[in-house]
Amino acid sequence: MKVAMIEDDIELAEILSEYLKKYGIDVTNFDDPYVAISAMRIEDFDALILDLTLPEMDGLDILKKIREFSDIPVIISSARSDLSDKVIGLELGADDYLPKPYDPKELEARLKAITRRRTKPPKEPDFKIYKNRREIHFKSKPLHLTPAEYEVLGYLIEHQNQPVDREELLYACENLSENASEKTIDVIISRIRQKIGDEPKNPRYIQSVRGIGYKFVP
Predict the structure, then answer these.
(1) Measured between alpha carbons, how far is 70 from 208 in angstroms, rounded to an integer?
(2) pLDDT digit string (tens) for 160-209?
(3) Under DSSP, is residue 51 helix (H, G, I), strand (E, B) or coil?
(4) 125 partner at 20 to 30 Å CA-CA among 65, 91, 107, 112?
(5) How far apart, in whole angstroms, are the C-alpha atoms of residue 105 and residue 15?
(6) Rounded Cα–Cα distance for residues 217 and 64 (Å)
(7) Do residues 6 and 49 lie in contact, with contact meaning Cβ atoms separated by under 8 Å?
(8) Residue percentage of the chain with pLDDT more than 70
(9) In the chain, which ranges are continuous DSSP H helix?
(10) How far apart are the first and last CA of the chain?
């Protein structure tokens, strides 16, 4: 885990950084708010630990600026005990508020908790092949394909992101007649595109590769 911290208490920052490092959390501390904001625009961090009482800029103002360009998980780490600071911080988009002093182990647990909550489940693929039923589902619904269409589309999906020439598709398909030609593949591709709503001039999934054949892009 790669974490940014905005903390002007250098000794505390070092203590927290050393502790978290033992648990696989790499902390980069910034004691200058402006440098921190600039760095966060160009670097990828998994979370931010934000102090509120900082030189040059209040922590709540920093949070406002960061929320203009990032939805990074934020833990406010502050000695300020005013309830309004906590409420405003959460309203501005902080995910958690940890009052100082605290045990570093609690910070570690909270960091892992907020990043776990923010982790999105993997997106379901638009196409799924069910070989035992010889079916291909598109966006969770079965496509009504001829045996040849099933074989062509299935072969392209299994070789996704790779250009596949028409002759290769001819040999891969068992349900084509002996008289089938490369033109036959073009006709089959056209029918498949119709069934999945792929625009022939600007296809999303089955793209033409000039001089070769086709490429499936998931």
Answers:
(1) 37
(2) 999 999 999 999 899 988 889 999 999 999 999 999 999 888 899 999 99
(3) coil
(4) 112
(5) 12
(6) 39
(7) yes
(8) 98
(9) 10-21, 33-42, 59-67, 83-91, 104-118, 147-158, 166-172, 182-196
(10) 29
Instruction: For residue 151, give the nearest of 179, 180, 178, 189 by alpha carbon.
Output: 189
DSSP of 1-32: -EEEEE-S-HHHHHHHHHHHHTTT-EEEEESS
| Contact in structure between 60 and 92 (CB atoms under 8 Å) | yes
Query: Which tokens hold the place of 151?
Result: 């074989």
Q: Considering the entire predicted model, what is its pTM?
A: 0.55
State both tokens at 75: 């833990």
Closest C-alpha to 27, from 39, 14, 37: 14
Q: CA–CA separation, 169 vs 187, rounded Å? A: 13
Q: Are 213 and 185 in contact (CB under 8 A)?
A: yes
| Residue tagged 């296809």 (tokens) | 203
